[in-house]
Write a structure and sequence with these properties.
Elements (H helix, E strand, L loop, with lengths): L1 E2 L5 E2 L4 E6 L15 E7 L7 H9 L10 E6 L5 H18 L3
Antiparallel strand pairs: 1-2, 3-4, 4-5
Helix pairs in contact: 1-2
């Protein structure tokens, strides 16, 4: 479960993750290790309340496709786990920004 607010959680299956190679300069493992994470979240098919869905879909954000799919690439950290956590936090902030 991914906590969005105290009342709203997203089930694990609602967010898809895939490991991708990080861009930019790196060390010896840059071409061998996929530490970056790509997150995909289908707003329209999600369990979010209608108010939240409408708010997110109304945002003018390049990470939201015309089909309502949010794609976030996280690569700030060397650890895949930390990048995954960063991607979820950025999704949470995007969702909350839609209802403020």
């Amino acid at each position: 479960m991914f906590k969005i607010t105290n009342q709203i959680d997203l089930a694990d299956g609602e967010i898809q993750f895939s490991a991708v190679r990080a861009q930019g300069p790196g060390g010896q493992n840059v071409n061998k290790v996929s530490s970056a994470v790509s997150l995909q979240f289908d707003v329209r098919a999600s369990s979010l309340p209608k108010r939240y869905k409408d708010g997110v879909l109304a945002l003018h954000d390049r990470r939201i496709s015309h089909k309502g799919i949010v794609t976030i690439k996280a690569q700030r950290f060397r650890s895949q786990g930390k990048n995954r956590e960063d991607a979820v936090n950025r999704l949470r902030n995007l969702i909350l920004r839609g209802v403020i």
